[in-house]
């Protein structure tokens, strides 16, 4: 999730100035890209295009409840299409980052539950926590998002979610570029050494 989230963030930051140069035509083009991704996902999987188009708030519960209906290929395509649509939305549209990150994490977690020894509930919660911390950069909030969503089952998987969040946070920080400007404290102490 740290790799996927960092890729989404970097591509969105790369696209944003290009969209801002020609705001109206670029925004329309980005809307068409999102629509095309939703249609491609729907035609390729037979699932609803709304899973890609909307934030994911309403689709999160049904995704978990009907997780047995999703193959690994379907989940991979969902993560790819929703990730690209999320990236385009971050660069051109208004909206919050929380529910798309949670939905992407949930889909990725469910996909990882196909691995031997990883059950659905912990994988779901770990995916939400890992993607949330990658996009929001708020570790404690991400742990809470991954566990409180599951109610009483969340308490039993909380240690796994904490580990997933910490690992994703460290990887995300490692993949993030170093700040280019000097800090405010450095600016007050004088010029940078040559």
UniProtKB/TrEMBL annotation:
Keyword Membrane: yes
Keywords of the record: Membrane, Transmembrane, Transmembrane helix
Membrane topology per record: Multi-pass membrane protein
Claim: Endoplasmic reticulum is one of the keywords in the record: no
Main location: membrane
Highest rank taxon of the organism: Bacteria
Membrane-crossing segments per the record: 23-41, 70-91, 123-150, 157-175
Cellular compartment(s): Membrane
Family matches, as InterPro entries: Cl-channel_core (IPR014743), ClC (IPR001807)
Protein name per UniProt: Voltage-gated chloride channel
UniProt source species: Streptomyces spororaveus
Lineage, highest ranks first: Bacteria, Bacillati, Actinomycetota, Actinomycetes, Kitasatosporales
């Amino acid at each position: 999730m740290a790799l996927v989230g960092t890729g989404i963030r970097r591509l969105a930051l790369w696209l944003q100035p290009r969209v801002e140069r020609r705001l109206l035509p670029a925004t329309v083009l980005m809307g068409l890209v999102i629509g095309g991704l939703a249609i491609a996902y729907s035609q390729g999987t037979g699932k609803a295009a709304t899973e890609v188009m909307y934030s994911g708030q309403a689709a999160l519960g049904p995704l978990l409840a009907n997780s047995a209906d999703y193959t690994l290929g379907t989940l991979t395509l969902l993560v790819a299409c929703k990730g690209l649509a999320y990236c385009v939305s971050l660069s051109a549209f208004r909206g919050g980052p929380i529910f798309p990150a949670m939905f992407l994490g949930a889909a990725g977690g469910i996909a990882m539950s196909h691995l031997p020894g990883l059950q659905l509930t912990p994988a779901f919660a770990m995916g939400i926590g890992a993607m949330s911390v990658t996009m929001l950069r708020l570790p404690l909030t991400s742990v809470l998002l991954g566990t409180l969503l599951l109610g009483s089952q969340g308490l039993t998987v909380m240690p796994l979610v904490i580990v997933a969040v910490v690992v994703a946070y460290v990887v995300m920080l490692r993949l993030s570029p170093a700040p280019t400007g000097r800090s405010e404290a450095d600016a007050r102490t004088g010029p940078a050494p040559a």
